Amino acid sequence: MNPRFLTRRLTSFATLLLLGSCTVYAPMQPTISTIHVKGQVEISGGVQASGRVESSVVYSPLPNVLVMGAGTFRPNLGDSTFYQTRQWEAGLGGYLPLGSGWQLTGLAGYGTAHTHRAYVEEPLIWGERMLETYQMRYRKVFGQASLTHEDSRGAVGAVYRLSHLGFDQIDYSAEHFPAYGLPLRSLVRHEALVFGRRNLGAGGRWQLQGTLGLSMAGQGRHSTSEDARYNQVNQVLLPVPTVGLGVVFRPTLRREK
Q: Residue 219: its pLDDT value, please?
């Protein structure tokens, strides 16, 4: 690969990481499943680069049928600037083996989230540093599709999720100013993820998992000329990168002797 091309891509992703550090939206990563037989279970747990703990369970009760549940949590650690979120989701779907280790998987579901975020906004040229706070509660429906490949060493794949958020609360406040609601009632997000799994020992019951994802708003930034509140709405529309590391336990696989 051309070193300059790689440098540009890494620089672009680093920029997204910086942008994502200031957005109140905290996307859960799309569900990953390599289940291909009735009765199989996958239990995963990991940590996101933002400090969130995330876990999921996927199960196949019938041939080509999946049920899943997932949640993520990050507490308020007591700092003046903080990032707190609680989320859960559940869904149904199915899988279609394509042969030679390849598989298509689809899921659709529903979830809820509460996110509370505070950070210090630095002045661009002059002025005072200001503590800004966002609080958001929303419901979401989502649909996703993934393509995966599994072999004796592990698995790789890509997932695309379309999420529709319906806000029950989305408030903004800043030092010396009262809190007020933002003019945003719903939002569509496009969320993509690539992952890799590596077997830990023989049999593949335990796997190490790494993920890299990006969530982008399905609408453009608003003009702030008529309503200054769209300055804060535009913060919610920022792209959010995700990086995660975790483990996967597949208890229904037989132990290798």
A: 86
Which residues are CB-neighbours of 45 under 8 A, at least 6 positions away? 53, 54, 55, 246, 247
Measure the CA–CA gap between 108 and 145, rounded to whole angstroms: 9
Helix (H) or strand (E) holding 25: none
Number of H helices, E strands in the chain: 2, 11
Q: Where does residue 176 fall: left (phi above 0), alpha (psi -120 to 50 degrees), or beta otherwise?
A: left
226-244 residue pLDDT tens: 777 888 888 899 999 999 9
CATH for the stretch 3-23+38-249: 2.40.128.90
Q: Model-level pTM? A: 0.85
- CB neighbourhood size of 180 (10 A): 12
State the Rg of the chain over Cα: 20
Q: Single out the residue of 21, 6, 5 nearest to residue 238, CA to CA.
A: 21
Upper half-sphere CA count for residue 196 (Cβ side, 13 Å): 5
Residue with tokens 């190490």: 208
Element housing 230 (H / E): helix 230-236
d(CA 238, CA 231): 11
Residues 6+ apart with CB under 8 A from 251: 41, 43, 205
Would the pLDDT of 119 be above 90?
Answer: no
Question: Which residues have CB under 8 Å from 137's CB, separation 6+?
Answer: 112, 113, 114, 115, 167, 168, 169, 170
